[in-house]
Amino acid sequence: HHLTQALVAVPPAAVLAEMDRTLGPMIDAIPQRLIQARTLAEARDALLPRLISGEVEIPAALLKEAAR
Predict the structure, then answer these.
(1) Neighbouring residues of 52: CB distance < 8 A, sequence distance ≥ 6
(2) How far apart, in Å, are the Cα atoms of 46 and each of 29, 30, 37, 43, 52?
(3) Running DSSP on this structure, what letter comes out for residue 24?
(4) Is residue 31 within 8 Å of residue 37, measured between CB atoms?
(5) Is 24's pLDDT higher than 80?
(6) Are the beta carbons of 40 and 48 closer than 8 angstroms?
(7) Residue 36: its pLDDT value, please?
C-alpha cells in the first residue's frame, strides 16, 4: 500500500546515460580494487614483521626514491 504511494524523482534519460558512462567504469572496477587491496594487505602483513625484526632490509636508494 505505502509503496504504491511513494514518489521517486527520475532524471531524464540523457542524464542517466551520462551518469552510466561516468560511473559505470568506476563501479565495474570495485571488485578488482577489493582484490588488490586484500592482496596488498596480505603482503604488508607478511613483510612488516620481517622489516621490523631486521630480517629484511630496504636498500637506501629505494628509501630515497620513496621519499620524493
Answers:
(1) none
(2) 26, 24, 14, 5, 11
(3) H
(4) no
(5) yes
(6) no
(7) 98
Q: Which three cell numbers stand for residue 48?
A: 612488516
Cell of 52: 621490523
What cell was used for 18? 551520462
Q: What is the DSSP string of 26-53?
A: HHHHHHHHHHHHHHHHHHHHHHHHHHHH
For residue 15, how many other CB atoms are within 10 A of its CB? Answer: 10
2, 13, 19, 64 from 7: Cα distances, Å: 10, 18, 21, 58
* pTM (whole model) above 0.70: no
Q: Are 61 and 68 in contact (CB under 8 A)?
A: no
Q: Which three cell numbers stand for residue 20?
A: 552510466
